[in-house]
Amino acid sequence: MSSQSSRAAQLAASTVPASVERVVETVLPTRHGTFRMIGYRDSGGTEHVALAQGIEDATPIDEPPLVRVHSECLTGDAFGSWRCDCGEQLDAALAAVARERRGVVVYVRGHEGRGIGLLAKLKAYALQDEGIDTVDANTALGLPVDARHYDQAAEILQDLGIRAVRLLSGNPAKEEALEDLGIAVVERHGLAVSERSENAGYLATKRARMRHDAPPVADAWESLLDGVVPVAPSQGEGEELAHRYGYLAGADGQLVVGQLRQSLDGFIASRSGDAGLHEDSGSHNHLQRLRALSDAVVVGASTVLIEDCSLAVEDVAGTSPVRVVLDAGAKVGAQARVFTDDGVPTLLVTALDASVPEGLPASVEVVRLPAEEFAPRRVLDLLQARGLRKVLVEGGGKTVSRFLEAGLLDRLYLTTAPVLIGDGVPGIRFSGSDILAEARTAPVRRFVFGQDICTEFNFGT
After folding, report:
1. Distance between CA atoms of residues 154 and 227, nearest Å
2. Nearest-CA neighbor of 204 among 252, 105, 135?
3. Rounded-to-integer distance, Cα 86 and Cα 59, Å
4. How many CB atoms neighbour CB 278 within 10 A?
5. What share of the chain is helix, strand, coil (3-state, %, to 5)?
6. CA 200 vs CA 127, 142, 180, 205, 233: distances in Å
7. 251-458 matches 3-217 in CATH topology
8. In the chain, how many H helices and how many E strands?
């Protein structure tokens, strides 16, 4: 089918009336932060949602926000299929909106398989398994190459007060359809999602036969954030990042990483609790990258009380992990930054009889455990049940040491700062051996961060 006839078919389809009605609004905490979630129903009974940040009904929209019009894809969005890039595009779009703190992802249902439906898409998959490309598979079934229309998306944007957008899409047909429906597209660019061997042919066909743009070139860090380890990263920083963090980005099962920074004589704070060790920028960025590549970051209550840390990803690209606060006595107050900062989902793990502080935001889920179940293995099982497989145990010394002693750390990054404290809050401590030959060890790598030296223990080998 020529681009002209494909365009004509798309325009014809887009004349289908949508008559979208707003039905409900709530909030949705996600790994990318908390979104305003608005539910719609069109005149055909199909339900759609918009996920928004920084867009309020009563506030005029002066500058065009980031907008992703995302077509429903069960296999990619829910099951993580690599036959397409839909799930990764959705995740990247939510991350882009969260980074800017302003924008909308319109999730359009009824667009499965470019509008042909789920079972028809699976039939097209079966034909593709025999060597037919995605375009010819649809036409071989007597179905259009692209049966989608975007009336409902345009009406949803208009309902939100949006008349002009910066569109997150590599598909010019979406831009043209929205323009025809009264939504001005002031700019359009694709999302940098790494191509995989499983979907390379599919993506090439969309570029060659459906006018899709070539994808933006993903740098090494963007690839790692997508869970793809670059095969041949650029020399310099890209090569170093792939070398240092590739194992974490590409992990499939549960992986537990410990991280602690202490003085040369093994303390993380003075005896008064002062934890103000001057932090080298390299150590800071290293910690931020570990957070960005993790699903969850675990800390004990004492660390939160002393440092009032947010555990957010800052100064590097990436989204903040789910925060997990181990606080059996519910000592941490509701105003702590770990609970209030940027709406990232947080688990407050506390005892059955603990009095949880009032005023916790909706992004905080309270999980109660019997006192005897606060063991590290139980905590990891809890996170695994929630799909949080890559876990960073960040502090403090007691918490990291408990995971180490339990033999549950796959890696440990122990960074030493060039300072002697003499006495204070201890860093790594565990029940050792009377015989030095039985001391805990593993293959190591060392990284220099300014004046800090980071030793990485690989206990998973």
Report:
1. 33
2. 135
3. 31
4. 11
5. 30, 25, 45
6. 17, 25, 31, 9, 19
7. no
8. 15, 18
C-alpha 317 chain-centroid distance: 11
Which of 3.40.309.10, 2.60.40.10, 1.10.390.10, 3.40.430.10 would CATH assign to domain 251-458?
3.40.430.10
Question: What gap in Å lies between CA 152 and CA 183, rounded to an integer?
Answer: 12
Q: How far apart, in whole angstroms, are the C-alpha atoms of residue 79 and residue 328?
A: 35
Write down the pTM of the prediction: 0.60
pLDDT tens by residue, the chain, 461 residues: 444 344 334 434 434 445 899 999 999 988 788 999 999 999 999 999 999 999 998 788 889 999 999 999 999 999 999 999 999 899 889 988 988 889 999 999 999 999 999 999 999 999 999 999 999 999 999 999 999 999 999 999 999 999 999 999 999 999 999 999 999 999 999 887 777 889 889 999 999 999 998 877 667 888 888 887 876 666 678 888 988 999 999 898 899 999 999 999 999 988 888 877 766 678 889 999 999 999 999 999 999 998 888 999 988 989 999 999 999 999 999 999 999 876 789 999 999 999 999 999 889 999 999 988 889 999 999 999 999 999 999 988 999 999 999 999 999 999 999 999 999 999 999 988 888 888 888 999 999 998 999 999 999 87
Residue 277 to residues 6, 123, 451: CA-CA distances in angstroms? 62, 60, 12
> Is CATH 3.40.50.10990 the right assignment for the domain spanning 3-217?
yes
Domain segments of the chain as ranges? 3-217, 251-458
Distance separating alpha carbons of residues 334 and 22, to the nearest angstrom: 34
Measure the CA–CA gap between 444 and 457, rounded to whole angstroms: 5
Distance separating alpha carbons of residues 241 and 458, to the nearest angstrom: 17
